Amino acid sequence: MRIKEAIQQSIDVKHKILSDDQIIELIEKVTDICVTSLQNGGKILFCGNGGSAADAQHLAAELSGRFYFDREPLNAEALHVNTSFLTAVANDYSFDEVFSRMVKAQGKKGDVLFGFSTSGNSGNVVRAFNTAKELGIITIGLTGESGGELKGYADYLFNIPSSDTPRIQESHILIGHIICELIESRVFG
Question: Helices H, strands E: what count in the chain?
Answer without folding.
Answer: 7, 5
